[in-house]
Amino acid sequence: MRSLSWIAIAGCGSMLGACGGASPGEEASPPPAVTSQAALSSTVTRTFSTGQAVDVGWADELSQGFVLAATDTTNRVATAFLSGTQILFDPTSQVCVTDPVLGSFCHYTRVTYDSIYANFDPGDLSVSGNTARLKTDLGAATAFSWVRCVFEEATLSNTCADLPPSGTILLQWQKTSAEYVKSIGITATKSGPHTVRVSGSRAFFSADTSGTFLGTALLHKSGSMGTSSSLTIDITRTP
Questions:
Q1: What pLDDT, on the 0 to 100 scale, is given for residue 121?
Q2: pTM of the model
Q3: I want to staple 231 with a disulfide (CB 3.0 to 4.6 A). Which of 19, 77, 200, 211 is the partner?
Q4: What's residue 217's pLDDT?
Q5: Neighbouring residues of 201: CB distance < 8 A, sequence distance ≥ 6
Q6: Burial category of 18 from C-beta neighbours within 10 Å (exposed 0-12, middle 13-18, buried 19 and up)
């Protein structure tokens, strides 16, 4: 017998500023290609059966991101896996210019990309009835990968490095009846060297969400929770 609970926080993809990252009338820096990578290419795949699901995406002037966490129980043995990405814009790097064609606009010249995946304690994720909660300390995670890339427009550099496991994630969901959606298909999100591809079918209700991801409070967020089936998660890291 197999059972599954999973959480997905879907960000705004690789288009910086598409859902946030710039104030009205401003433009965010374009997503750079990775020019310095901490490790070689690799792909991690996780496949799950039918289970419960929740998600939330966030984006504001200075941050945007997503997280995906799943627990799978086979023959009474539970395992758990998470993937997360956040994009942070350095407020001290804002530059405003005037173009004869485009007019006046502002953007950030320094952007940090955090890409994470890890196994974690299955007891840190609970989905029950109309609520869900994820609280985990990444310092205790295994099979861990955290890549941080910093893009500097001034030098056109994008320097990446591996970081040790650390930090906490604390997120909560409360189901509402404002919206009900069924979906079948594939979503993909790219940030820094990681591309996360999720395929499967879902049926979900909207949900109120709150919490923090590695110290970043979720603002301008939307969430949902419901069921998923035949879920496959592929995380590809490219140099």
A1: 87
A2: 0.71
A3: 200
A4: 87
A5: 182, 183, 184, 228, 229, 230
A6: middle
